[in-house]
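Example 5.3 — HupE/UreJ family protein
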Amino acid sequence: MLTAGAFAHGVSESDKGFLQGATGVHFLPYLYLGAKHMVTGYDHLLFLCGVIFFLHKMKDIGLYVTLFALGHSTTLLLGVLNGWHINAYLVDAIIGLSIVYRAFDNLGGFKTVFGVQPNKKAAVLIFGFFHGLGLATKLQDFALSADGLVPNMIAFNVGVEIGQLLALGMILVAMRYWRSTASFARHALAGNFALMTAGFILAGFQFTGFLSK
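Solution (predicted structure tokens):
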């Protein structure tokens, strides 16, 4: 379980072999890997669930998802291309806490406990930076070839955003169905507590990995 937690941005052995051995421009493979990462990235999906949990208008959903994508894309590209070396355990712990933050906000915790309401849009953008940085730190472990690095990273990033749209579509279908049932009002509170618990578990795994390293 610790190993699974430590690699929240994990890459399969076959994909790892490709990343370490590829030289030159490989637009489509990197596009596919980016989309695959987002669709299977449970930390990203949990955060997105929290972001859209109480959003009903597509205009609002589009705005928040765009802010997340902007943050995610910026640090993914800059982190890899500039060689930012940041402890992966700490970054992934913050990503876990981003899920906690979002669920706590959905529950009205900031107003109830602290009497303030942080800017929701700014929070999504800022946590988007950390989500992108988390993947950037993982990609740097694979000694990517400098030959074709820029176009490959652009392709990977485009794939991530395509994967995000696919994942978002599936989440929206499930959420719209749930909202149409009587159980949504009864279980929305429990749903956000479940999100918060998942975030604490992910963050706990990462802090444990950092301390035992």
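Remark. Residues 105 and 120 are 8 Å apart (CA to CA).
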